[in-house]
Amino acid sequence: MSFKLSEGALSVILAGGNVDDPVMQILGHKKIAGTSSTTGSDRFRLLVSDGRHLNSFAMLATQLNDKVTSGELSDFTVIQITRYITSMVTNSDKGDKRVMVILDVKILALGTEVGFKIGNPKPITEGTEVETGGLKQPPPSRPVQPRSSTNLVNSSAPVLSSPGSSVNTHPISSLSPYQNKWVIKARVTSKSPVRTWANARGEGKLFSIDLVDESGEIRATAFKEQCDKFYDMIEVNKVYLISRCTLKTANKKFTNIKNDYEMTFTNDTQMIPCHEDTTDIPSLTYNFIPINTLAGLETNALVDLIGVCKSSGEVQSLISRNTNRELKKRDVTLVDESNTSVSLTLWGNQAEEFDGSLQPVLAIKNGRINEFGGGKSVSLMQSSVFQINPDITEAHKLRGWFDNVGSTQEQESLSSRTGMAGGALSSNWMTFKEVQENQLGCGEKPDYFTSVATVLLVRSENSLYKACPTAECNKKVIDQNNGMYRCEKCNREYPNFKYRLLLSVSLGDLSGNQWVTCFQEVAEVVLGTTSQEIGDMFHDDKQFREVFYKAAFKTYTFRLRAKMENYNDENRLKVTVVDAKPLNVQEYNARLITEIKEMAGVGNSAK
DNA sequence: CCCCCCCC
Fold first, then answer.
1. Strands A78-91 and A23-32
2. Which GO MF terms does the UniProt record name (predicted)?
3. Are residues A321 and A243 located together in one domain of the fold?
4. What number is the average pLDDT over the span A280-291?
5. Neighbours of A91 (CB within 10 A)
6. Tens-digit pLDDT profile for residues A189-208
7. A182 and A237 belong to one structural domain
8. Are A158 and A243 in contact, with CB atoms under 8 Å apart?
9. Which nucleotide has the shortest C1'-to-CA distance from A207?
10. Are residues A399 and A257 part of one domain?
11. How many domains does chain A have?
């Protein structure tokens, strides 16, 4: 990067003249403690160079002090002084002197990026001639773009006015928040759907794209107006010329795109399709890691993976606990040359359309690590890229390994085996005493366990409520006593409602007892009837109570979820029934016999 | 300015 300083600007300014937006280089700074007239805080004096002269009487406005402390105004930094004033001060031994107060600056290049003194500037001495040679016009006030080949650079930021023309572009890796004059030529490697949000800070919509060129990759996000303006125009795999986005520090928590920054579209953002030859722009870059290294990574970390889909499960349907919406998912098993396997979860259409029968190679960019039952798995997200049999060397290599070696080997699994009946990790059989001893539910996420237990008591009070009739909302409605029922969540009234159950049940097993909560579907199993029927008999107290009495002393295999909750500074284990199946006595006995044999060492010695 | 991404 080369920068042209506004040579001669200092002598003009110090002679009382004006130069618009001069570009200067900082060559030093000095703290003058507690000298700000307004705040009494520190002030900084800067040694600035216009490439021809040095001047150490530039003072920095105190509101810009943080730019010094943050290092943005370190030595060799090139700045554009966008606002300044000069004034005369009386200096006791040197007479009157003009000083420059810098009110606002634009950082064009950080000192660490520039790294040297530009030109050979000399101090302005008393009586330095004001060189009037070029002063009818102000000195060049803009940095000259490196090796410009177009007319893009005459404004403060490039305008992409002529699509397809030869544009001098910048590598993605050179982008930073300190330089806004760039054009990149980049391929869109992924594009998210438009998503809306609403929170305390406001609402809006957005989408993100990932961009790549030969130097690197970066994520760009368009909000609101820009979202509408650009969404339809942008196509994955196409190459665009892009300029005038703002850059900010990327949060690695949300992407593993290799860039410290991410871009945000602005009103001025230009993005136009590139009609030149784009074969030199790469299509997608992965940062694959071996599957076995997942074990050492944190939950929720984002990773790029490649593996052979050794097996694939069925599509499963489930109801999201957060949204009440139906979700479709499919778990597949990925293996690679580290001879390790991990479960990968596909969602929605990707889950439904996936065909694993030919054991394809799958490449994932930006997959998310999940943890369940002590195992690790990877889940696809909206922002993930998912490729089946990609035409890349890693995929071909993996294919060769799998067909020759991997397919016949047993891989060590990082994931809990949810498909295996009786698999210790997935079932997690526990008595209620063991649940306490093992402090289940004390982690950040809930713990799941399975228990054989008997219903001791079902509370009938407040067990039935009138709920919102819409499929996805089960909120309690308010009876308006005029034939209408109001749902606060939907913010509307309905002429009808549906009955739903929310049961408190005391369960007992051989070790103790535990109060649990059963929602609608499970509650109907436990009560042996439907919520509608119970609602219909609500006014017949005897019949109503009878249902609850009859539920007692039945034994089930319960799938339970435990999470510690805090009420008025008191911790209480909240246990919810996820599933209740009538006890299968044969299976239960078989398991007990196996456990007894293990405890007695009978199984081992019998071998 | 989002940052939710679901389930066992």
1. antiparallel
2. DNA binding; zinc ion binding
3. no
4. 94
5. 11
6. 999 999 999 988 999 999 99
7. yes
8. yes
9. B2
10. no
11. 4
pLDDT given for residue A60 in this prediction: 85
Strand partners, A560: A449, A577
Domain range enclosing A222: 172-273
Backbone angles phi, psi at A29, to 5 degrees: -145, 155
Question: What's the pLDDT score for residue A324?
Answer: 83
Nearest by Cα to A28 from A4, A7, A58: A58
On the question of pLDDT at A172 being above 80, the answer is yes
Amino acid present at A397: K
Helix %, strand %, coil % for chain A, to 5?
Answer: 20, 40, 40
From the CA of A239, how many Å to the C1' of B7?
38
Residue at shortest CA–C1' distance from B6: A320
A334 located within any domain: yes
Beta carbons of A469 and A504 less than 8 angstroms apart:
no
- Taking the C-alpha atoms of residue A221 and residue A204, their distance in angstroms, rounded to an integer, is 13
Residue A71 inside a domain? The answer is yes
**Tokens, residue A202:** 């406001």
Chain segment A292-302, per-residue pLDDT in tens: 999 999 999 99
Give, in Å, how far the C1' of B4 lies from the CA of A516. Answer: 29
Which carries the bigger pLDDT value, residue A445 or residue A1?
A445
Q: Would the pLDDT of A552 be above 60?
A: yes
pTM of the model: 0.68
pLDDT of residue A138: 41
Reduce the DSSP state of residue A111 to 3 states and report it. Answer: helix
- Pair type for strands A492-494 and A485-487: antiparallel
- Check which CATH number belongs to the domain holding A299 and give it: 2.40.50.140
Helices and strands of chain A, counted as H and E runs:
13, 30
Closest nucleotide C1' to the C-alpha of A372: B8
The residues near A134 (Cβ < 8 Å, ≥ 6 apart) are A8
**Strand B bases contacted by the protein (CB, 7 Å):** 1-8
* Same domain flag for A499 and A376: no
**Measured CA to C1', what is the nucleotide nearest A327?**
B6
At A100, list the tokens. 């420059």
Instruction: Write out the two tokens for A605.
Output: 């010695």
**Through-space separation of residue A239 CA and nucleotide B6 C1' in angstroms:** 33
Q: Are residues A376 and A319 part of one domain?
A: yes
Among the candidates A239, A273, A307, a domain finishes at A273
* A345/B6 CA-to-C1' distance in Å: 11
Q: What distance in Å separates the CA atoms of residue A375 and residue A421, rounded to the nearest whole number?
A: 16
Q: Write out pLDDT tens, residues A418-428.
A: 444 334 456 88
- Nearest nt by C1' to A320 Cα: B6
In a domain, A53, yes or no: yes
Same-domain pairing of A16 and A90: yes
Are A343 and A390 found together in one domain?
A: yes
CA angle A26, A31, A35 (to 5 degrees): 125
Residue nearest to nucleotide B5 (CA to C1'): A381
The confidence band for A16, taking pLDDT boundaries of 50, 70 and 90, is confident
Closest CA to B3 C1' — which residue? Answer: A254
State the DSSP code for A533: H
